[in-house]
Write a structure and sequence with these properties.
homodimer; alpha/beta; Aspartate Aminotransferase, domain 1; Aspartate Aminotransferase, domain 2; 2 domains; 4-stranded antiparallel β-sheet; disordered N terminus
Chain lengths: 443, 443
């Protein structure tokens, strides 16, 4: 299948309409998975290949150091026959601790560095534990837009959710509105990602300091999802032990879960291993209310023995050795891990250019007045489309797929989320061509 | 450290008392982990090595076919960079389906065979989904004794628990009492393991048929934990496609989760991969009440996309290829998997003999009037000790460690659970020697 676009777009409208109708999917609320199904079907029926921006899946090959370390561990350590330690393989905990020192300039001893089955489990357990610390605090406050599954986790756990949209709340406004919302006293934790999925705005040190003060004042725990660690490529966060350091809430408060995924920065999504850094003070904090759900009063114990353990017993040991070896190489300065993923930034720059020169706009279009960084996601809208789902539907005829910003919890329902991970640079001419045709048809 | 017993047991009472006191642990309710800590401390301080029966951890090496398949997948398939399919790697689903046909003589199509992060996640998600099908059914009924963590999972999920003890309820009595309990209408699911952890009694086909009828009558789902698949070594369940077949509730009802661990029968605990077989009918069953927690009405979809996905995204891909290759070899008849784990039965026979010839008794001492099978666990008591925790405490002075049956939810609070997994046959003489001394001191 080729990316020959101009000859074929827009695709036959009746065919596309029939496929959408037969899939029984409402484009207005279509999830990533549902969009994926429709696009697969159109690709198959029309023999075309889409520019797929709906998927937030990584696609760069992992570093061979990690793969070889897993293989060595499988061969040499007699892995599979024993359970891994419930709190994680010591080598991984130690390298994670070094990583925190070298790339965050913060002290998280190995006991505070807890491997999980991907950042997904790290978020799930953090939410569960935070939601059980105080029975009057059962709401998770999101800084939106965000990763839709975090809200799904809250539903699973029976937690309430509320949100503040970063579109019109940044800087002092963000801190003030956060403080006002927290003053209601029902918020157990505040969850966000920075760089933000999908707006790719990045909270500043001043915002983080103000947010930390507000959270400390009102007894809310921070759950900081550093899924895209270091991927604000406007700065170089990739030199071990040298400033600048990745901004983090942990610099300003002592009650946080900081979750570092290996999926994007380390291209290790498929082996499901991440690390949650727990503030040493939070690790030791006690609440009698944790007993009922987690069988202990202590947050750290609740996280590991009352959280990870009843969910999955432990984390597969092989992948832990793989990530440990990769972190060691990164910590030693032998692997410049952020250089490898700058590829996503190159794609974002080229893709944004193609959109902006064909009548589209960025929705989240600046970062505290500065240009946005280029990274894993960006957001677009088109002045002729006031509803995002209609734009998604129209773009389907031009071989370009995305999901609406509404599904990411954004108030900007005219926008779309675009992911750069599947659009390699050789596809950019096809994208440009398709968008140019779209522009002609929607002047 | 040596197993020289006669010279040193009983250990100095003041030292042991001090270690227990300093650990701050109540032997009456000590968990496996707490007992482990005390024993480690005594071993270190006295320079002795215990016969450790408290741990239910496997210890046999896994088959090299699985390890080599993982290595090949890491090398050849570019694994880590993509997420695995949310519903599992197709090769594993297909071999699991074949396994169900060849070793259970039942049809579970691949779509009904769902890999999870160990049987732990399989149980957790089964409990979560079963508990959300009907808002008036929020109780999980256990056939006890059992694996303590299943009750911890219910606490995590906010589910109620109740229990029927298999000690005085077998055969028709079990079915009648189960039917009476289910008639109260609050039971979402019944959970048990067979072979039973730790009594090693095995539910008969007649019991399973009667239980299925009772559960169908009262709308309860079955959660059958086949953690010790095929390990009733009185029969040979290990010949693919040939009777006898492992007894299972799935032969008698259409609403069950049947969870097959890879930890014991396949010695693959550390890589965290298991399979939950979901009745095809249950997979398609709908309940509007599932929406709130799992975002869908359909049980199968709730299990995968509303259960596994928000917990861990997916299951590490490497281990799935390892287990797929091993299941293929087992299905093809190339690996006689149950032969390898008969080692546990040999140990159980020798260990039981050592206990019974030194004044101990089996607590759960028969299987519907027949002798018990030898396997991974057995249960003991001593006529001079009416409380299990006192027996645990006394055995500590003889270099033998176990946990109480009370911690496994048994009504037989005089008993202990003994696991065979860490007592290799060369340790039997030391065990005999220690128990002989115990017997002399407690005639």
């Amino acid at each position: 299948m080729e990316h020959k676009a101009s000859a074929s777009v827009p695709f036959d409208r009746e065919t596309v309409a029939r496929i959408v109708r037969e899939a029984g999917i409402n484009l207005c609320t279509a999830s990533i998975r549902e969009m994926n199904r429709i696009v697969n079907e159109i690709e198959k029926e029309l023999g075309v290949r889409f520019i797929r921006m709906e998927f937030g899946i990584p696609g760069l090959p992992p570093h061979p150091i990690a793969i070889e370390a897993e293989i060595e561990a499988l061969r040499e350590k007699g892995l599979a026959q024993h359970y891994a330690p419930f709190d994680g393989v010591p080598a991984l905990k130690e390298e994670a601790s070094r990583f925190a020192k070298l790339f965050l300039n913060l002290d998280f001893p190995p006991v505070a560095c807890v491997p999980t089955v991907g950042a997904m489990q790290g978020c799930f357990v953090s939410l569960a534990v935070a939601g059980n610390v105080d029975p009057v605090k059962r709401t998770i406050l999101f800084l939106d837009p965000g990763f839709p599954v975090n809200k799904q986790q809250c539903r699973f756990l029976g937690l309430e959710t509320d949100r503040i949209d970063l579109y019109d709340h940044r800087g002092e406004t963000l801190v003030r509105v956060l403080d006002e919302r927290l003053a209601r006293g029902d918020v157990a934790a505040v969850l966000w990602s920075s760089p933000n999925n999908p707006a790719w705005i990045i909270l500043s040190e001043e915002e983080l300091r103000g947010m930390a003060e507000a959270m400390e004042r009102h007894g809310a725990i921070a759950i900081e999802d550093l899924a895209y660690f270091g991927m604000d490529f406007r700065k170089d966060y990739g030199k071990p032990g040298k400033p600048p350091y990745q901004p983090t809430i942990a610099r300003y408060m002592n009650r946080c879960f900081v979750i570092v995924s290996s999926s994007k920065a380390f291209s290790y999504a498929g082996q499901r291993v991440a690390v949650t850094f727990i503030s040493p003070q939070l690790l030791r904090e006690e609440s009698p209310h944790l007993e009922a759900r987690h069988g202990t009063r202590t947050i750290g114990y609740a996280f590991i023995h009352g959280g990870i353990y009843p969910m999955t017993a432990c984390i597969a040991e092989g992948p832990q050795h793989g990530l440990a070896a990769l972190l060691k190489a990164v910590n030693d300065g032998a692997v410049p891990f952020l250089e490898d993923v700058k590829e996503y930034a190159k794609r974002a720059a080229a893709m944004k250019k193609a959109f902006l020169s064909n009548g589209f706009r960025l929705v989240y279009d600046n970062d505290l007045g500065e240009p946005l960084a280029d990274g894993f996601y960006f957001t677009v809208s088109h002045p002729r489309f006031s509803e995002g789902w209609k734009l998604v539907a129209e773009l389907l005829h031009y071989g370009v797929s995305a999901i609406t910003l509404a599904t990411a919890g954004s108030t900007r329902t005219e926008g779309l989320r675009a992911c750069t991970s599947l659009t390699t640079l050789d596809m950019i001419p096809a994208l440009e061509e398709r968008l140019r045709k779209f522009h002609e048809d929607n002047p």
